[in-house]
């Protein structure tokens, strides 16, 4: 296996008040970040194998700058209520092999990353009807973070590992080549990482499955948040 699922982002209102619902369910919030030069900020929840990120634009000038513009993060955030998919799926490399990227991509070097690090962004970054794809060469499972970077992983609701990520949209039956490649590779390694899938539906939504969904429980965060969780 050359990659693993790392995290999902969902574009939210400024400050991500939508995340408060997860806190009320018993999730413990982890470290929040800003991304200097990219103009975004987040709130995050960490699990043993992956992270859930709520993302918003805090500096529109930075997000619309020449360097950041090809990511289309501004459009994805600003028009999330107007027909643009508000999700991003991040993978992490498990080898140093340059061929480990799961999809066709271009190299993105945001100001907050030290040289020579870069992020591989899928060539579907301008396809705003499907999730943004990106892959980092430096990510780790949260349960393998160094002690000084450790995040809360135990939640009273019991969620431990994300095992399924399914994006729902009107155009899910017409994925771009980049998204097709990511899904194909995910199926290949389905026993080792979260399975990534697509499903046709009437509105943007993402379904997360935790711990192989053996308990048969479900919570729907709509309409405030386009998220459904099964565990």
Characteristic terms for this protein:
231 residues, mainly beta, 32% strand
Overall description:
With 231 residues, this protein is mainly β. It has helices spanning 20-24, 60-63, 73-78, 177-188, and strands at residues 3-11, 33-35, 40-46, 51-57, 87-93, 105-108, 119-122, 132-136, 162-169, 195-200, 205-210, 218-220, 227-230. An eight-stranded mixed β-sheet has the order 2-3-4-1-5-8-7-6. Strands 10-9-11-13-12 form a five-stranded mixed β-sheet. Strand 3 (40-46) and strand 4 form a beta hairpin. It is globular, with a radius of gyration of 16 Å.
Order of helices and strands: EHEEEHHEEEEEHEEEE
Tell me the major beta sheet: 8 strands, mixed
Secondary structure class reads: mainly beta
Cα radius of gyration in angstroms: 16 Å
Fraction of residues in helix: 10-25%
- Biggest sheet, spatial arrangement of strands: 2-3-4-1-5-8-7-6
**How far is the N terminus from the C terminus?**
25 Å
Average pLDDT:
95
Number of strands: 13
How many distinct helices?
4
- In terms of DSSP E residues, the strand content is 25-35%
Q: Rough shape? A: globular
Low-confidence blocks of residues: none
Write the layout of secondary structure elements.
Layout (H helix, E strand, L loop, with lengths): L2 E9 L8 H5 L8 E3 L4 E7 L4 E7 L2 H4 L9 H6 L8 E7 L11 E4 L10 E4 L9 E5 L25 E8 L7 H12 L6 E6 L4 E6 L7 E3 L6 E4 L1
Parallel strand pairs: 1-4, 5-8, 9-10, 11-13
Antiparallel strand pairs: 1-5, 2-3, 3-4, 6-7, 7-8, 9-11, 12-13
In short:
By secondary structure, the chain is mainly beta. It is 12% helix and 32% strand. The chain has helices spanning 20-24, 60-63, 73-78, 177-188, and strands at 3-11, 33-35, 40-46, 51-57, 87-93, 105-108, 119-122, 132-136, 162-169, 195-200, 205-210, 218-220, 227-230.
